Hints:
The protein is an all-alpha fold. The protein has helices at residues 3-13, 19-25, 31-39, 45-51, 57-65, 71-77, 83-91, 97-103, 109-117, 123-129, 135-143. It folds into 2 domains: 1-69, no CATH class; 71-152, Alpha Horseshoe (Leucine-rich Repeat Variant), CATH 1.25.10. α1 (3-13) runs parallel beside α3 (31-39), α3 packs parallel to α5 and α7 (83-91) packs parallel to α9 (109-117).
Amino acid sequence: MAEATRSSASLARDPQTPGKTLSKLANHKSWSVRAEVASNPRTPAKTLLRLAQDKRWEVRTEVALNHRASSKVLEMLAQDDNKSVRTAVALNPEASGAALRRLAKDKSAVVRQRVAENRSAPSGVIRKLAADESRTVRRAADDNHRSPKKVK
């Protein structure tokens, strides 16, 4: 990594970097710098929306993990073609019920398991996942504190 890119990545990672600077760094040619911007809690919502459409799944994954990502962004990323991005949305405690309901039907058992582990998942979603075809998903749903008493 060139020194200029390392310096930009360090600036993008710093939680004290102003939002305006982060917005500029979001246009960096290096996807690793854009990923650092996407993970920064001070990144403005408009910039996160733009990064949610980045061609690199690594950048979109960092947006999906960012607690400041809007429900609109997380719902969009819940439909991403990349399983890592969808998994990241499922892990985000700020994901909306709509996003988690969508992901509870995902073809990937890993994504469904992460939804089942999400403490913010609606109880109806947890109830549904407690009857999932995957034993790992069922176990995660049973362990979730929102799991209905009769499921445990």
